[in-house]
Amino acid sequence: MLPPTLVVGGLAVATVALHLRDPHQHGTWGECPTYALFGIYCPGCGGLRAVNDLSNLQIGAAASSNLLFVLSLPFIAYSFLRWAHGRWTGVPWRPSAFQLKVGTNVLIVLLIGFTVLRNTPAGSWLAP
Question: What pLDDT, on the 0 to 100 scale, is given for residue 107?
């Protein structure tokens, strides 16, 4: 497992790179492999554009690029804060096995549902 400081540092560097090199410009970051191989939008499609939009404080544009990513940010922030609090106090946050199982199952259902919906005519507004 990577040290948390390395992970946070890597995320910061990636965010700065996405801020400086605009993924809205076709070809700047390549093409999504899932879209290139299968012609469907994966749950991550539009994620790079969403990070770029958020780094420019354009929340509406970020939601338009990848709504699921934007909606997941409060949960990611909560998990990070719980982890950081545990590191600070010396009492690590350990979700129960039940919480992990439910969380994992909910995440899988959301990812599959989002992928299916954004690739149908009814959910075309979710496409990046």
Answer: 94
Residue 47: name the closest of 32, 26, 34 by CA. 32
- What is the rounded CA–CA span in Å between residue 67 and residue 49? 11
Measured between alpha carbons, how far is residue 24 from residues 44, 49, 50, 51 in Å? 15, 6, 10, 11
Compute mean pLDDT per 10 residues along the chain, 128 residues long, and list them: 69 81 80 90 92 92 94 92 89 89 95 96 91
CA dist 24 and 37 (Å) reads 21
User: At 1, is the secondary structure helix, strand, or coil?
Assistant: coil
CA–CA separation, 38 and 90 (whole Å)? 47
User: Taking the CA of residue 90 as centre, how many other CA atoms within 13 Å lie in the half-sphere pointing to its CB?
Assistant: 0
Sign of CA dihedral 14, 9, 63, 72: positive
Tokens of 27: 């070809």
DSSP secondary structure of 37-83: HHSS--TTTTHHHHHHHHHTT-HHHHHHH-HHHHHHHHHHHHHHHHH
